[in-house]
Amino acid sequence: MKLNAYGRSGLTVSQLGLGAGQIGDAALDEAHVAKLLNTALDLGITLIDTARGYGLSEERIGRHLAHRRSEFVLSTKVGYGIDGYADWTGAVIHAGIDAALMRLQTDVIDIVHLHSCSLDVLRAGEVVEALMRARDAGKIRVAAYAGENDPLGWALAHGGFGGVECSVSLFDQRTLQHWLPAAVERGQGVIAKRALGNAPWRHAERPTGQYVEAYWDRMQVLAYDTTGLPWDEFALRFSAWQPEVSAAITGTTSVENLRRNVDAVNRGPLPDEVVAQLRARFAEVGSQWQGEL
Ligand SMILES: NC(=O)c1ccc[n+]([C@@H]2O[C@H](COP(=O)([O-])OP(=O)(O)OC[C@H]3O[C@@H](n4cnc5c(N)ncnc54)[C@H](OP(=O)(O)O)[C@@H]3O)[C@@H](O)[C@H]2O)c1
C-alpha cells in the first residue's frame, strides 16, 4: 500500500484508510469486528478514522487494536455527546478528547477533527481555541476539521488546522474544484471520505430516505462510462489517486470488500485522460451541487 505524507504534519498515511463508522453498530459480532480491524492493518492500511458519534467504534478500536497502536495513524472527531456538557463548547472539546483517549486506549490521538460544526460555531472561536489548546498540550498531534462547503473553506483559510476530512468521489467533486488545491499549497493533510460515494450502483431503484440517495440521483445524471471496470474499482481509483488527497477512506463491515478495496487502490490511478473526462463531466453537470456531509 502506497504511503503519503499527511500535509506537513510529519504523519504518514496509507493511501487507503478504514472508515470506522460502520463498525460502531452494536449488532455486529465482536469477533468479526476484531477480524476486520486486524485485517485492515495486515493489508497495509495505516489510517483508521472514527468519531465520538459512531456508536461502539472508538471503544472497539481501543479494545482490538491497542496492542498495535504504533502501526496506525488514529483519527477521531469531537464536539458533542458528552453527558453534563453542552455541545459545541470549549469544555465539550476538552471532555471529548479526554473521553476519546480513554475509549481508544491511547496516550495521544494523531488527528482530531471538529465533527462538521457550522460556520457560526467556527467563527465564535471557542471550540477552535479549545482544539488548538489540546494540540499544544500534546493530547493530539493535528487539529483538523471535518465537513463541507463554507465551513470547510473557513477552516482551511484559518491557518491553525493541519488537515481536513471532506467528501471526494466520482459523485462529489466540489472539494476538488473549490478547496483542496489551496489546502495542499498550505501543507494541510486531506482525508477523502465517502470515497465510494456510498456505492450507489448497488441500488437498482432510488434508495429513498437513505444516506446514499443524493449520490444515486447524481449517478443517473452523470451517466459515467466505467470503461469496463467494476464500479467499486473505478470509483476508488478515482478518489484515492487524486493528487490533492493524502488518504481516501472507505467504510465497510465486510472483510471481502476491504480486500477488494485495497486491491483496487493498489492497481494505481485511472488513466489521465479518463480522470480528465470524469472531472470535466462533473464540472459540466454538477458545478452547482453542494458537498454532501
Ligand atoms: N461528517 C463526517 O465527518 C463523515 C461523514 C461520512 C463519513 N465519514 C467517514 O468516512 C468513512 C467512509 O464514509 P462512508 O462509509 O459513508 O462512505 P463509503 O466508504 O463511500 O461507502 C461505504 C459503503 O460502501 C459499501 N462498500 C464498501 N466497499 C465496497 C465495495 N468494494 N463494493 C461495494 N460496496 C462497498 C459499504 O458496505 P459494506 O459494509 O457492505 O461493505 C458501505 O455501505 C466513514 O466510515 C467515516 O469514517 C465522516
Automatic annotation (TrEMBL):
Residues 16-279 form the NADP-dependent oxidoreductase domain. Pfam families: Aldo_ket_red. This is Aldo/keto reductase.
